[in-house]
Amino acid sequence: MNSDLSDATQALERAAASCRERGASLTAIRREVLALLYRTPKGIKAYDLLEQMRQTRGNASPPTVYRALDFLIEQGLAHKIGRMNLFVACRHGAHSSPSLFLVCPKCNGVTELEDPDMVTSLYASLAATGHRLDSPEVEISAVCPQCVAGREAA
Amino acid sequence: MNSDLSDATQALERAAASCRERGASLTAIRREVLALLYRTPKGIKAYDLLEQMRQTRGNASPPTVYRALDFLIEQGLAHKIGRMNLFVACRHGAHSSPSLFLVCPKCNGVTELEDPDMVTSLYASLAATGHRLDSPEVEISAVCPQCVAGREAA
DNA sequence: GCAGCGATGTTATAACATCGCATATCCGCC
DNA sequence: GGCGGATATGCGATGTTATAACATCGCTGC
Ligand SMILES: [Zn+2]
Ligand SMILES: [Zn+2]
Ligand SMILES: [Zn+2]
Ligand SMILES: [Zn+2]
């Protein structure tokens, strides 16, 4: 049975609720963008997103999608992978602990990984040099399991 | 006394030697770009680099600098910080172990940090999910010591 | 009504990066 | 010296990613 759809719907409703709690609102545009992000778990580029948007909203323009993305990132609902100019939905409602973003150089897929031990070690390293961790996004280039196996997924 | 200059000169000569070992050649353009990277340890953008280049080489164009940067990155002499579209010289001749790149969101400065413990922990995390580390560049957003102290360096 | 405000529409442009093809330079070989 | 391939550079155009600037809409409170 089709649980993906209802999963996505539930996730959208949770997202809307968490925005409301913070006094922000998940408007129709933002909701559509977030839904598209949910549909492409490996990440999507802003202009591909724009193209998708235009299918239901002919007048969508770059600011339309960038504004929605900025909002979603502010709300912790999405992340940007700078290395690849790729945007992904956050897999963890709203996480306080940083995530590792594993970017596969073969298939360009992104995997979000939470790992408390890593983060502990990370904090220690940074503290030792006087730095303070700022964002929840740590980008790492790492070949994904599929591509390690040689299957070179799309 | 002015040891920066001779340091940079030495570094350039080491770089040239390591290129030669690999059958590559550090040509005049590439050498100039690398020298500019050495002069801006916090990282520099491609088009700022281009502007600098034009002061001594009026006909420099975007491909001029991007080609040189690609070469330097291939040779392990420079790194790209995807998050910021910033390029930095590698602080470690040619390093096999990955580095952490701490990008300060206040001053946009980049610090390259080698930390074996972190890397060990990182390998463990990745192996646990079937990933294999690919590139020597791990990007982390972290406020630098100067900015932690509130000095908001340029 | 009508200010105040957040969101959106719209146009243009800034900023970053690559392509394609011609020319030049180097180097080993005849 | 002359040739041929590989590498490097010049140069114009183009492609890709992101933001600036300004107008407008729709709601809420007064
Ligand atoms: Zn997340
Ligand atoms: Zn992959
Ligand atoms: Zn390095
Ligand atoms: Zn700083």
Automatic annotation (TrEMBL), chains A, B:
- One GO CC annotation, please? cytosol
**Coiled-coil region(s) at which residues?**
none
Asked whether the keyword DNA-binding is assigned, the reply is yes
Q: Which UniProt keywords apply?
A: DNA-binding, Metal-binding, Repressor, Transcription, Transcription regulation, Zinc
Q: Which domain of life is it from?
A: Bacteria
Q: Name one GO biological process term.
A: negative regulation of DNA-templated transcription
Binding residues for Zn(2+): 104, 107, 144, 147
* InterPro entries linked: FUR, Fur_C, WH-like_DNA-bd_sf, WH_DNA-bd_sf
Cofactor binding annotation: Binds 1 zinc ion per subunit.
Q: Which cofactor does it need?
A: Zn(2+)
Asked if Zinc is a keyword of the record, the answer is: yes
Q: Name one GO molecular function term.
A: DNA-binding transcription factor activity
PANTHER family named in the record: ZINC UPTAKE REGULATION PROTEIN
Q: Which family does it belong to?
A: Belongs to the Fur family.
Q: What is this protein called?
A: Fur family zinc uptake transcriptional regulator
